[in-house]
Design goal:
CATH architecture: 3-Layer(bab) Sandwich
Strand content: 15-25%
CATH class: Alpha Beta
Radius of gyration: 25 Å
Structural class: alpha+beta
Number of strands: 10
Number of helices: 1
Number of domains: 1
Largest sheet: 4 strands, antiparallel
CATH topology: minor pseudopilin epsh fold
Strand order of the largest sheet: 3-2-1-5
Length: 192
C-alpha cells in the first residue's frame, strides 16, 4: 500500500515574514487614512445640515413675509441661554416680533440636535452670529460674517459659510481642507 500524497504544506519562514510585514504596513496606514476620511465626511455633512437650516430660514422669511430666526437650542422648542453655541443644536422659528425669542404663537419650523461630540460651530464673534441670525421678509440677514465648523479646534479639515448683509449665503472656498474667508485668505482659527 502506498502512502497518501499530501497536497497541503505550510508557510516557509520567508513567506510568513513577508506576510507579517505587508500586514503591518497595511494596518499602520489604513486606520489613519480611514479616520481622516471619516472626519472630513463628518465635517462636510454637519456643515451641510447647518447651511441647509440657514437657507431654509431665509427662504421661509421671504415666503411668509415675516422675520425668521436661527438660534442655538438644546431642547428644540426655545433658544438656549446666552453663551450656548450652535454645536449644542439649533432651531429655525418664525420670529414675528423680531426679538430672537420663541414667544407664544411663534412656530418652530425645524430643530436639529447637537453636533457629534468634539465638533464646534462658531459664528463671527464681533457680531450677533454666535447667538442668532435673523432674516427679514426681503431675505436680508441681521448680521454679516462667517460660521465655521471644526473638529477639536483643528482648522484642517473644516468648513465655513459666509453670510452677507444682503442675506446671500455662500459656502467658503476650500483650499485643501481649509476654508478661505471673504477676501480669499485661508482661515487660521476655528473661532472667527
Amino acid at each position: 500500500m502506498k502512502a497518501p500524497l499530501c497536497c497541503c504544506r505550510g508557510f516557509t519562514l520567508l513567506e510568513l515574514l513577508v506576510t507579517v510585514v505587508v500586514a503591518s504596513i497595511f494596518l499602520a496606514v489604513v486606520p489613519g487614512t480611514f479616520l481622516n476620511v471619516l472626519n472630513a465626511t463628518r465635517v462636510k455633512q454637519q456643515m451641510y445640515d447647518f447651511n441647509n437650516a440657514i437657507d431654509f430660514a431665509r427662504s421661509e422669511a421671504v415666503k411668509r413675509g415675516l422675520y425668521v430666526t436661527v438660534c442655538p437650542s438644546t431642547n428644540g422648542s426655545s433658544c438656549a441661554a446666552s453663551g450656548t453655541r450652535f454645536e449644542s443644536g439649533w432651531i429655525v422659528f418664525v420670529d414675528s416680533n423680531n426679538n430672537q425669542t420663541v414667544d407664544a404663537g411663534e412656530e418652530v419650523l425645524r430643530y436639529t440636535s447637537a453636533l457629534i461630540s468634539g465638533y464646534t460651530l462658531r459664528g463671527t464673534s464681533a457680531t450677533t452670529l454666535n447667538s442668532y441670525i435673523t432674516f427679514n421678509s426681503k431675505g436680508r440677514a441681521s448680521a454679516s460674517g462667517t460660521y465655521i465648523l471644526c473638529n477639536s479646534s483643528a482648522i484642517n479639515p473644516s468648513r465655513a459659510i459666509l453670510i452677507a448683509s444682503t442675506g446671500r449665503i455662500t459656502a467658503a472656498t476650500d483650499r485643501n481642507g481649509t476654508p478661505l474667508d471673504s477676501s480669499g485668505t485661508a482661515m487660521t482659527t476655528c473661532t472667527p
